[in-house]
Amino acid sequence: MTRNKASLINSIWNNSNLPKQESISVVESLLEIIKRTLESGEDVLISGFGKFCVKDKKERRGRNPETGDDMMVDARRVVRFKCSILMRDKINGNG
Q1: What values do phi and psi take at 13, rounded to 5?
Q2: pLDDT tens-place string over residues 13-41
Q3: What's the 3-state SS for 7-40?
Q4: What is the domain extent for residue 48?
Q5: By three-state DSSP, how is residue 5 classified?
Q6: CB 43 within 8 A of CB 52
Q7: Are 38 and 54 in contact, with CB atoms under 8 Å apart?
Q8: CB-side exposure of 71: number of CA atoms within 13 Å?
Q9: What integer is the mean pLDDT of 59-84?
Q10: 23: how many CB neighbours lie within 10 A of its CB?
Q11: pTM assigned to the model
Q12: Is 92 found in the same domain as 54?
C-alpha cells in the first residue's frame, strides 16, 4: 500500500492526542519546511530515516525515445534520497 499525505495525517491523528486539524497542520508544516530547505539547495537529514540531497545535473546529450532524434537535455537540479543504515537494516529485516 502506498502512503499518501492523507494517510500520514490519519496515522498522526490516530496515534496521538492531536486534533485532526493540528495533525493536518503538522504534516503540511513539515513538508513545507522540507520543500523550502531543498529549494535553497540545502540537504535535509532526518536521523534514523535518511538524507534528502539536491544534486546539480549538467546539460547532456540525449535521445527522444518517440522519434529517435538526438537532442540536448537541459541542466537541472534533482533530489536524491539516501536511507540511513538503521532504516536499511529495518527494511532488510536486520533491525
Answers
A1: -60, -45
A2: 999 989 999 999 999 999 999 999 999 99
A3: HHHHHHHHHCCCCHHHHHHHHHHHHHHHHHHHHC
A4: 41-95
A5: helix
A6: yes
A7: yes
A8: 10
A9: 94
A10: 19
A11: 0.78
A12: yes
Rounded Cα distance between 41 and 53, Å, is 8
Looking at the fold, whether 65 and 92 belong to one and the same domain comes out as yes
The verdict on 60 and 88 lying in the same domain is yes
**45 & 35 share domain:** no
Do 80 and 55 belong together in one domain? Answer: yes
- Which candidate, 79, 34, 37, 39, places its Cα nearest to that of 56? 79
Angstrom distances, CA of residue 40 to CA of 2, 73, 92: 28, 23, 33
- Of 50, 47, 24, the closest CA to residue 16 belongs to 24
Q: Which three cell numbers stand for residue 90?
A: 529495518
Supply the mean pLDDT for the chain: 93
Contact 38, 52 (CB under 8 A): yes
